[in-house]
Automatic annotation (TrEMBL), chain A:
Listed name of the protein: ABC transporter permease
Membrane topology designation: Multi-pass membrane protein
GO cellular component, one term: plasma membrane
Transmembrane regions: 207-229, 250-281, 301-321, 342-358, 370-389, 418-438, 549-572, 600-621, 633-653
ABC3 transporter permease C-terminal domain boundaries: 212-319
Keywords for this protein: Cell membrane, Membrane, Transmembrane, Transmembrane helix
Organism per entry: Streptomyces caeruleatus
Signal peptide: none
Protein's cellular compartments: Cell membrane
Organism placement in taxonomy: Bacteria, Bacillati, Actinomycetota, Actinomycetes, Kitasatosporales
Automatic annotation (TrEMBL), chain B:
Domain ABC transporter, residue spans: 5-226
Record protein name field: ABC transporter ATP-binding protein
The entry's keywords: ATP-binding, Nucleotide-binding, Transport
PANTHER family cross-referenced by the UniProt entry: ABC TRANSPORTER RELATED (PTHR24220:SF685), IMPORT ATP-BINDING PROTEIN (PTHR24220)
Keyword check for Nucleotide-binding: yes
One Gene Ontology term of the molecular function aspect: ATP binding
Domain of life: Bacteria
Organism the protein comes from: Streptomyces caeruleatus
Record InterPro entries: AAA+_ATPase, ABC_transporter-like_ATP-bd, ABC_transporter-like_CS, ABC_transpr_LolD-like, MacB-like_ATP-bd, P-loop_NTPase
Xref: Pfam families: ABC_tran
GO cellular component: membrane protein complex; plasma membrane
Residue stretches in coiled coil: none
Length: 671, 227
C-alpha cells in the first residue's frame, strides 16, 4: 500500500495557513542564508588554495645544473606600497627549449617583457621614472594570462634575459633573512615548483581560521530554522495521534516537511551564491579581487552543502519533535525547567585550568597550545553557555522588581539552552571581535619608512655605490640623504648587510622614483624598501585584518539573523499565552521588553565574558609570536560589539509587528 | 444591589454574520451570570464586548455608570488590567513562572512592589485550596489546580468583574464542579461580580442567573437562588 506520509505532509503543509507559511518561509530563509554563507566560506577556502597554486611557478624549481635549460631569478619590487613580482628568465644556450611559464604564450626571449594586466595598467598610468624604467626598455609588453596569476589585480612581470645578465647571476640570488620567498634564483628545466608566493601562501590558512570561527554560528542559524514552528508541530502531533497516526508516521511527516523547506531554502542559498559569484569575486582579499572560476566550488561541494544544511534542519526539527513524542505533555506544558548541571562548570573550569597550566610560567602559549585553547574553548563554550544562562536567570529572577525583568529572568531559567541558542551567535562573534581586535601581528623593531637601500657586495663597494646613488637621485630629482650602512648596523633597513641607504624626502611617489633611479646600482637586485623587509609579517597581518573584518561582519549578520529568527519563532510558538496576557490587560510594551531583556541580559554577560576571553587569547598569541598588542583595536572592538548588539536588537525588534499582530484580537473564537 | 456592568442595545457584526443583535444585559454587585448558548450563538462575543475586548458596532457598555466602549485602546487595556479579572479555558498561565508569580504578575503590572505583590498573591492560595503549590509551575499542576491559580490571578487585583470563558472546558466533571464552585464562591466573597460563558448546564447552575443566547439575541433569563 502506498505510504500516506508524502501526500498527507503536502496537504498539511499547503493548508497550514498564513502562520504556517510564515514559519516555513522563515525556516527556508534561514536555510538559504546558512547555505549561502557556508558556500562562500568553502569557496573562499578552496579559492585561496587555487590562487596560491597559480603562483607556485614563480618560485624556481631547482634542478641540477646539468639538467637545467634556463636560469630563473624571481625577485620583488614595490610600487605604491604594492608588491610587483618580477620573474627573470634566461634560456641557457645549447640546451633544449624551456617550456613556457603558466599564463605566457611562450618562453620569453631576451629583451621580451610580459606583464599582468594590472601591471600593464599601472605602467601606463605612472610616469616611467617611477616604474617602467625598472624593466628592460621594450616597444610593447606581452600579457600574462590568468593561468599564471592569482588575481586579476596582481602585479607580475616576466622578463627574458641573457644568461650573462647580472639580474640572473648568482649574486642576484643571494639571500638575506628578509629575502625568503621574495628573491630566489636557481637553474630550472620548467615551472613545476610547489612553493606558493609569500603573498598568497598564508591566504588559505587565515581563511580557514575565519571559517572555523564562523561555522558554528552558521550551524546554529540552520538549527534554529529547524526549530521554527515547533508549537505548530506539537499541535499537529496531538491531533494526528488522536486521528490514529503512529509516532513513526508523525516523525516521518515532520522530517519530510522540514527537509522540503530546508532543501528549498538551501537551494535558494546555493542559487544566490551562483548568481552572486561575479560580485563575490570582486571583493578584494590579499593580492586583490578573484577570478570568478576560483570561487566556484564545483557541483560536489554545492550538493554537499545543500544536503548538509537540509540534513541539519531536518535533524533539528525531528529532534525537537522526538522530545514531544517521548513526553508530549512534558514538553507542551514545560512541566520541568530544563535545568543545566554544575558538571558544565566543572568541565569548563577544567579546560581553563588546562589552558592556564599550558601557558607555563611565562604565560605564553605555543602554537599547539593556542590551537588547543581555541578547540577546547569552543567545546567548553557549548557546555558552559547554557549553564551561565540558567544561573543568570536565577540570580536576576531573585532580584527582579519589574514584571518584564521577572518574565525575562524566568524564561532564562526555564529553557537556558534555547536562550543560549539565541545569543550564542553574537557571543561567539564577541569572542572573534575580542581575539582579532588586539591580535595585530606586526613585528617589533624599528621601521624605516621613506628609506630605499641598495645591497652591495662589501663595504668598499658601498662607498662607491653611495656616490653613484647621490648622482642618480639628483638626476631623478629626488631629494635624499644617502648613507653607507655596514654589516654591524643591525638596526638599519638592511639589517646588518653592507649597502647604501637613502632617506627620501617626500611622499610615496618620491620613494618609487628613488627605487627606479637606484635600480641600475643593485647589481641585478632591486633596491630594498621597508615593505620588502617586513613583507612576511605585513602579509600575515594584512590577511588577519581582512579575515577578522569579514568574520566580524558575517558573525554579526548571522547572529542578528539567528536572533531575529528565534524571536519570531518564539512569538509564533507562544502566541496563545501572549494573546491571553494582552487580552487581560498586560501592556504590549511589557511583553516586548521581556523579550528584549531575555536576550540583553545573557548577551551583556556572556558576550562581555567571551570578548574578554578573546582578548586574553590574542594577547597570549601576540606574546608567543613576540609581537605587540594592537591597542588601537580596542576602539574597533567597542564599535563592533556595539554595532553587533544593535543589529541583534534590531532583528528582535523586527518581530514586534508580529507580536502586535498575533496578540491583537481575541484568542478564542468568538461565537 | 447596584449595577456594576451593563450593556444596552449591543450589536456586533462579522461581515454578513450578526453575532449580537441588540442585546441588553446588566450585572450587579456580587452577581454571577452564566451565558449559555449553542456554538455560534454569540455568547463569547457578548463576554468579549462586555469586557472591552471587542468594540460593539452599536449600543453601549457601562462600568459603574461610565461608558467604556468608546475608550481608547490604552485606557481599555488599563481598565481590563485594573478592574477586570479573566479566567480562560486553558493556557493563560505563563509556563515559566511559578504559581505565586503568575498570580502576582497583574499586581506588579500595576506597580505594586514585587514582595508585596507576592504576599498579596499568596493570600488567595488557601481559600482556593492551593496551599503548598505556590512554587509549582503550571506544568507541574493538574488541570484543576492550574484553573484555580488562574482564578487567584483574576481575583488578585480585586476586580469589579471576573470574566470566565469556558473555565471548565478542559476539565473532567468532578474537577469542573470543584473549580466552578470555588470560582463562584470566592468571587462572590471578594465582592466581585462574575460573568461566565459555558456550554455546560451543570456549571451554569452554580450561577445566580443564566442568560441564554441564540442567534445574537437573549432568548431566556433564568434566575437561580444560590443555596
Amino acid at each position: 500500500m502506498r505510504s500516506p506520509v508524502l501526500p498527507l505532509t503536502w496537504h498539511l503543509a499547503r493548508s497550514s495557513g498564513r502562520r504556517g507559511l510564515q514559519s516555513q518561509l522563515l525556516a527556508a530563509g534561514a536555510a538559504a542564508v546558512g547555505s549561502f554563507l557556508l558556500l562562500v566560506m568553502v569557496a573562499a577556502a578552496l579559492g585561496a588554495g587555487t590562487r596560491a597554486d597559480h603562483t607556485t611557478w614563480r618560485t624556481p624549481d631547482a634542478v641540477p645544473a646539468k639538467r637545467a635549460t634556463a636560469v630563473q631569478a624571481t625577485t620583488t619590487t614595490y610600487v605604491r606600497d604594492e608588491p610587483v613580482t618580477v620573474v627573470n628568465l634566461a634560456q641557457l644556450p645549447g640546451r633544449r627549449q624551456t617550456p613556457a611559464p603558466p599564463g605566457l604564450s611562450g618562453f620569453p626571449e631576451r629583451g621580451e617583457v610580459y606583464v599582468s594586466p594590472a601591471l600593464a595598467e599601472l605602467l601606463h598610468e605612472l610616469p616611467a621614472n617611477q616604474l617602467a624604467d625598472r624593466f628592460p626598455t621594450v616597444r610593447s609588453y606581452g600579457t600574462i594570462g590568468a593561468a599564471g596569476l592569482a588575481s586579476p589585480d596582481e602585479l607580475v612581470a616576466v622578463a627574458g634575459r641573457a644568461p650573462g645578465d647580472p639580474v640572473v647571476s648568482k649574486a642576484a640570488g643571494e639571500q638575506n633573512f628578509y629575502d625568503d620567498g621574495l628573491t630566489e634564483r636557481a637553474p630550472v628545466a620548467g615551472f613545476a615548483g610547489t612553493k606558493a608566493s609569500p603573498f598568497t601562501g598564508a591566504d588559505q590558512g587565515t581563511v580557514l581560521l575565519g571559517v572555523v570561527l564562523l561555522v558554528m554560528p552558521v550551524v546554529v542559524l540552520a538549527a534554529a530554522a529547524g526549530r521554527l514552528g515547533a508549537a505548530r508541530r506539537e499541535q499537529r502531533l496531538a491531533a494526528l495521534r488522536l486521528a490514529g497516526a503512529t509516532p513513526r508516521q508523525i516523525l516521518a511527516m515532520t522530517a519530510v516537511e522540514a527537509a522540503g523547506v530546508g532543501a528549498a531554502g538551501a537551494l535558494a542559498g546555493a542559487l544566490a551564491y551562483v548568481a552572486l559569484l561575479p560580485a563575490l569575486a570582486a571583493l578584494p582579499y590579499g593580492v586583490g579581487a578573484w577570478y570568478t572560476p576560483q570561487l566556484w566550488v564545483g557541483l560536489p561541494w554545492l550538493a554537499a552543502v545543500v544536503l548538509a544544511v537540509t540534513a541539519l534542519i531536518t535533524v533539528s526539527a525531528v529532534t525537537m519533535l522526538r522530545q514531544v513524542a517521548t513526553s508530549p505533555l512534558g514538553v507542551a506544558q514545560q512541566a520541568d525547567p530544563r535545568r543545566t548541571r554544575a558538571v558544565r562548570l566543572v568541565l569548563f573550569v577544567a579546560v581553563l585550568a588546562y589552558i592556564w597550566m599550558s601557558t607555563g610560567d611565562s604565560g605564553q602559549l605555543n602554537t599547539r597550545q593556542l590551537l588547543a585553547l581555541l578547540a577546547l574553548f569552543y567545546g567548553a563554550f557549548w557546555l558552559f553557555g547554557p549553564w551561565v544562562v540558567d544561573r543568570l536567570g536565577r540570580i536576576v529572577g531573585r532580584r527582579a522588581k519589574r514584571p518584564a525583568t521577572l518574565l525575562a529572568a524566568r524564561r532564562l531559567s526555564d529553557d537556558p539552552r534555547a536562550v543560549w541558542r539565541t545569543v550564542s551567535g553574537l557571543v561567539l562573534a564577541g569572542f572573534v571581535a575580542g581575539f582579532f581586535s588586539v591580535s595585530s601581528l606586526g613585528a617589533e623593531g624599528p621601521t624605516h619608512h621613506g628609506q630605499v637601500a641598495v645591497i652591495t657586495a662589501n663595504a668598499a663597494d658601498a662607498r662607491h655605490t653611495a656616490a653613484k646613488a647621490r648622482t642618480a637621485l639628483h638626476r631623478a630629482g629626488v631629494t635624499a640623504t644617502v648613507t653607507v650602512t655596514s654589516e654591524d648596523d643591525y638596526n638599519s633597513l638592511l639589517g646588518g648587510v653592507d649597502g647604501v641607504t637613502a632617506q627620501v624626502s617626500g611622499g610615496q611617489e618620491r620613494v618609487d622614483a628613488a627605487v627606479t633611479a637606484l635600480t641600475p646600482l643593485g647589481s641585478g637586485r632591486y633596491p630594498v624598501t621597508q615593505e620588502y623587509v617586513s613583507a612576511s609579517d605585513d602579509t600575515v597581518t594584512a590577511r588577519v585584518a581582512t579575515v577578522s573584518a569579514a568574520t566580524l561582519v558575517l558573525s554579526f549578520l548571522v547572529a542578528a539573523a539567528s536572533g531575529g529568527l528565534t524571536a519570531a519563532a518564539n512569538v509564533l510558538d507562544r502566541r496563545r499565552v501572549y494573546g491571553l496576557l494582552r487580552l487581560s490587560g498586560t501592556p504590549l510594551e511589557v511583553l516586548d521588553r521581556a523579550r528584549i531583556r531575555e536576550t540583553v541580559i545573557p548577551l551583556a554577560v556572556l558576550a562581555g565574558g567571551t570578548t574578554a576571553m578573546g582578548v586574553f587569547g590574542a594577547v597570549q598569541l601576540n606574546k608567543a609570536a613576540g609581537t605587540y598588542v594592537n591597542t588601537s583595536g580596542a576602539l574597533q572592538l567597542v564599535l563592533c560589539v556595539a554595532v553587533g548588539a544593535l543589529a541583534v536588537f534590531a532583528a528582535i525588534a523586527g518581530s514586534r509587528p508580529l507580536l502586535r499582530k498575533v496578540t491583537a484580537g481575541p484568542v478564542q473564537t468568538s461565537d | 444591589m447596584s449595577t456594576v456592568l451593563a450593556g444596552y442595545g449591543l450589536v456586533k457584526k462579522y461581515d454578513s454574520t450578526t453575532a449580537l443583535a441588540g442585546v441588553d444585559v446588566e450585572v450587579h454587585e456580587r452577581d454571577s451570570l452564566a451565558i449559555m448558548g449553542p456554538s455560534g450563538s454569540g455568547k463569547s462575543t457578548l463576554l468579549h464586548t462586555l469586557a472591552g475586548i471587542i468594540r460593539p458596532d452599536g449600543g453601549q457598555v457601562l462600568l459603574r455608570g461610565d461608558r467604556i466602549d468608546k475608550l481608547g485602546e490604552n485606557r481599555l487595556s488599563a481598565l481590563r488590567r485594573k478592574r477586570f479579572g479573566f479566567v480562560f479555558q486553558f493556557g493563560q498561565l505563563l509556563p515559566e513562572l511559578p504559581a505565586e508569580e503568575n498570580v502576582a504578575l497583574p499586581l506588579m503590572l500595576e506597580g505594586v512592589p514585587r514582595k508585596e505583590a507576592v504576599e498579596r498573591a499568596r493570600r488567595w492560595f488557601a481559600p482556593l485550596g492551593l496551599d503548598g503549590l505556590e512554587h509549582r509551575r503550571p506544568g507541574q499542576l493538574s488541570g484543576g489546580q492550574a484553573q484555580r491559580v488562574a482564578i487567584a490571578r483574576a481575583l488578585a487585583v480585586e476586580p469589579d468583574v471576573v470574566f470566565a470563558d469556558e473555565p471548565t472546558g478542559a476539565l473532567d466533571q468532578r474537577t469542573s464542579d470543584e473549580v466552578v464552585r470555588l470560582l463562584t464562591s470566592v468571587t462572590r466573597a471578594s465582592g466581585a461580580a462574575l460573568v461566565m460563558v459555558t456550554h455546560d448546564a451543570d456549571v451554569a447552575a452554580h450561577c445566580d442567573r443564566i442568560l441564554q443566547v441564540r442567534d445574537g439575541r437573549i432568548s431566556n433569563y433564568s434566575p437561580f437562588t444560590v443555596a
